[in-house]
From TrEMBL, chain B:
It is found in: Cell membrane. InterPro entries: ABC-2_transporter_component (IPR051449), ABC2_TM (IPR013525), ABC2_TM_bact-type (IPR047817). Belongs to the ABC-2 integral membrane protein family. This is ABC transporter permease. Keywords: Cell membrane, Membrane, Transmembrane, Transmembrane helix, Transport. GO terms for molecular function: ABC-type transporter activity.
Amino acid sequence: MNGGNGIAIDVKGLTKSFGGREVVHDLSMQVKRGSIYGFLGPNGSGKTTTIRILCGLLTPDSGEGTCLGYDIRRDAEKIKRQVGYMTQRFSLYQDLSVRENLEFVARLYGLADARGAARDMIKRLGLSGREEQLAGELSGGWKQRLALGACTLPSPKLLLLDEPTAGVDPKARRDFWNEIHALAADGLTVLVSTHYMDEAERCHEIAYIAYGHLLAHGTVEEVIAKSALTTYTVTGEELNGLTAALTGKPGVDMVAPFGTSLHVSGRDVAALEASIAPWREKGGLHWHESSPSLEDVFIELMSRSRDNFQ
Amino acid sequence: MSAADHPAPAHEIRERFGFWKRSYAMLVKEFIQLKRDRVSFAMIVMLPVMQLLLFGYAINTTPHNLPSAVLLQEDSDLARSVLKALENTAYFRFIYEVHDVDDFDNLLKSGKVLFGVEIPRGFERAVRRGDRPALLVAADATDPVAASAALGSLGMVVQTALAHDLYIGNPPEMPFEIRAHARYNPAASSSLNIVPGLVGTILTMTMLIFTALSVTREVERGTMESLLSMPIKPVEVMFGKIVPYVLVGFLQAFLIIGIGVGLFGVPLLGNLFLLALLSTLFIATNLSIGYTISTVVQNQLQAMQMAMMFFLPSILLSGFMFPFAGMPVWAQYLGECLPLTHYLRIVRAIMLKGATMQNLRFDALALAILMLVAMTIAVTRFRRTLD
């Protein structure tokens, strides 16, 4: 029942293939109870597949593990009772009203007072007065909030959120994340996949997955430290010309513009410094060494993994 | 809004009666969706009414002034009287008079006339001698309804008409024999068969299509994934999806039988309760088959196509269109596997012959078996994972 030692998800060596293509490769991860675990990676990297394995919607080809202390292979039905899964696509019934959708979920989970539970959730979501509106007519942000409400209605112990904020405006995203933090504070474990760096930085721990391989995990600081990436930030004029000149030079793994500045990063410090040396003397450019951003780390990981696995 | 502001009131989860509660949750959801889908709802009512009015009126209108030919091999007063009598029935309108058998046959074959009356040589003399000669009436029975209605009433009508013409008062016996010959379709089915038959075909069509679409629609709208991640079992999904449509089917059957009895004068001789009971069984069987289809196909288009693939043989091989007994043996075996075959026997027997459960137990059992087979396939086919 309790995964012991405060671990909500503990899986080892998960592998899953579709039609001969390996989507998840030898993936192991641990998620602490009550933490918010961010799942990052490019499209098609196996994030959704991993989430589906965790909630029993897919059976792994190999690998084992537990989710909330239940075996992911044998106890899928028990896991389903305690996990709230919010799919990437809006998965509530568009032709049912807000109230009807919530009552449906409450009844499916066997809540003693389905109507009462739905009513409480409507109040909690701030949807009072709109309970009879069809779910399909809600705005994107409200749809996400309602979907989250439906997931949390049966008081799950673990929430699996698959890109919950895709296509939602910044204000609604912030509200959404405040809600997730509030839920985690109540002891709920949350695994959330996202493409947004600011959201990744709001997670207690993150994992980066590309082409089915888990490439990095830990806190944001740990992931940045482990990347061993040296980054210079350049400001000044003629940055476009600089981008073209530096790209592909030895030691320069990545050149990326950030507004009015340019990030030049590489793993081999000596080679990097040698390559940029001629430009550092040049007038009109200001160079200073900075710590790489999470985005620098991920883009570097992504380009490296593409070389390795494709 | 945050959890801290509104701490979530813990709602208790009760494990008892889980099966019923989850099935009920599904059922309520399906009902609401059905209610919202105005077009489908209109179809539930309009389909049986339209079909019945179209079929029913097209079929039940008493045929009259049917184009006819006479093969006159003897020009006698009696022959003329008989023809006159026939024309007076209003069924026949003689537009050709021929003297050659080949011309007569060609008129019928080409469809220029639907009926031909042959008055043989020596007819009048034979009547006067009391030999009861045969008056041959040939009908093009490719249109069985027209043919059978006219043929069925022929004997009496002619007798009455001739009574005034030839003798005073009613003759104890026809002075000649009318030999009706339904060409091209010897086992012409009677019009009364059609209305009960329509109950079966309309139910088959609507029930199949509604449930055939039900699971694929969830997959296409993306709701299946979250439904699968919730603790509901395949059998509960199935019951939740089937039960609302049992009521829909019931409404349709009620409409068709009501119109059939009220508007077309179809008798309802048997027990109404028995009819309702066995109709429910038939509806559930079709829903199970439709549901099975929806667990096999990939999308809604395929579901429609497969439903049609099941529907066509149902119409052709069940005895709705062609007499069951007239089909080759292999086709009869195939027909026995279709629920409509058994239901047609049930509904016709109850409405027209006043049959009891005792007479129908074989067909009822067959329906129950077909339903269980379909349900078993559906529940095993229903994927609990996305693998």
